Write the structure tokens for this entry.
Amino acid sequence: MQQWYYTSGKKTYKDMEKTRARDRARYANDPEFRKKKRARTLARQEVRRGRIDIEPCTLCGEGGDNVIHHNDYNLPRDITWLCPPCHNAIHATLPTF
């Protein structure tokens, strides 16, 4: 199998294939993961198609490279725009299972 660097020399093609295989297995066996994956995909498509505009961070007002945060994966179009530091802070306070 080929091994080549795909992101700044840190990960190899082999690593990428392992990640894809793990995600495929998880997608097949975990309904909650499927729900998250579908919500994320739908949101990215809506942004790419221009149906959802990228907005400033809801918490601090920072513009720029904001990310989508889903409060509820059952409502994939109900999103909150957060800057990476605020997004990390929110996930640091959420319980992990």
The CA atoms of residues 47 and 95 lie 28 Å apart. DSSP finds three helices and four strands in the chain. Strands lie at 5-7, 11-12, 67-70, 79-82. The first strand starts at residue 5 and ends at 7.
